[in-house]
Amino acid sequence: MTISATDFRMPVLGADMQAGTLVAWRKGAGDAVRRGEIIAEVDTEKGVIDVEAFHDGVLDEIVVPVGQKVPVGTVIARFRRDAGAEAAAEGVAARPAARPAQEPRTPVAGERPRAAAPAPDRLQRMRQTIAAAMARSKREIPHYYLATTIDLHRATAWLADVNAARPIETRLLPGVLLLKATALALRAVPELNAVWDQERVVLRDTVHVGVAISLRGGGLVILALHDTATRSLDDLMDGVRDLTARARAGRMKSSELADSTITVTSLGDRGVESVYGVIYPPQVAIVGFGTVLQRPWVVDGDVRPRPVVTVTLAADHRVSDGHRGGLFLEEVGRLLQEPEKLR
Asked: What is the pTM for the complete model shown?
């Protein structure tokens, strides 16, 4: 029988995170664990984060106790992986990975109750973290910026037809079309779906679009919408609603904070016509969408009113150039002319 021990280290839960505090262990020594199951809660500048297991196995040893603050990369637990461990993990497959957000939970010894919204001094820590990440981005990343305006006549008409037969709670919002088009457009320019690591670009095979979510008490988080390119529009719509609700309730997961391969941001609901983002390290691009406006548009030689949106791209010049960025924006526009294919 092959037995392997694996160190579980304090994960990076956001750009420029330096350390985290163990708030609770959701598993104990000797417990079987499934990949993706919540094993601990860590307090960071963004709030209390649910930390997931990276693989099946048995939690062999807890190294860092509840209440201790440790730097990123510190070994906080050790796992054992062997045939028996994986069989034990299979036995807990039916157990929920995390309790539903609405279910009350009694804090364990040394654990602070989770607040429904960040306290003001947490808010200050979050702003400091955002400031550090954005300052690092502008200091280290040579940004270039592009913008284009896209006719959304076909997209909005198709969306209206789809939503007409649906109850309000299952209708699609225009933003989900923009997310799917962004993810699919990366097939044409895959170098934008990447991270900059150790002075080199590392391309990602899977598209995890990071959605920028503003919090009610102030601040901002970017959470990964996993496998964006392969999911249906309905599934993406459910995913966006879920991410937004949990982010604002302080129920975020570690993988959602760490997995984004490109970010989409929008201030369209605030009437902003165009937004030029700052790249979120270690990503190499961020896409911005403004509000949808009625504008005069030339169609077959005639001027007609059309719903249009301004799309921007901020990209890392170490990884791509304006020509490639232009191809990406062109592909986003092309995809939005055939919305029925985005399903």
From this structure: 0.79
The token pair that represents 131 in the structure block: 């400031």
Contact 154, 322 (CB under 8 A): no
What's the angle, vertex CA 179, arms to CA 282 and CA 283, rounded to 5? 5
Does 26 lie in the same domain as 140? Answer: no
CA atoms within 13 A on the CB side of 196: 20
Per-residue pLDDT reduced to its tens digit, 182-235: 999 999 999 999 999 989 999 999 999 999 998 877 788 899 999 999 999 999
SS3 60: strand
Radius of gyration of the chain (CA): 22
* Residue 182, CA distances (Å) to 4, 120, 179, 205, 293 in order: 40, 35, 5, 15, 20
**119: in domain:** no
- Give the residue numbers annotated as catalytic, written as ranges: 317, 321
**pLDDT tens digits, 97-106:** 333 333 333 3
- Candidates 120, 288, 280; CA nearest to 216 is 120
* Domain range for 31: 4-114
CA gap 206, 50 in Å, rounded: 23
CATH number at residue 311: 3.30.559.10
CB atoms under 10 Å from CB of 301, counted, come to 5
Q: What is the pLDDT of residue 209?
A: 98
| 254-303 tens-digit pLDDT | 889 889 999 999 988 888 999 999 999 999 999 999 999 999 999 999 99
CB 341 within 8 A of CB 335: yes
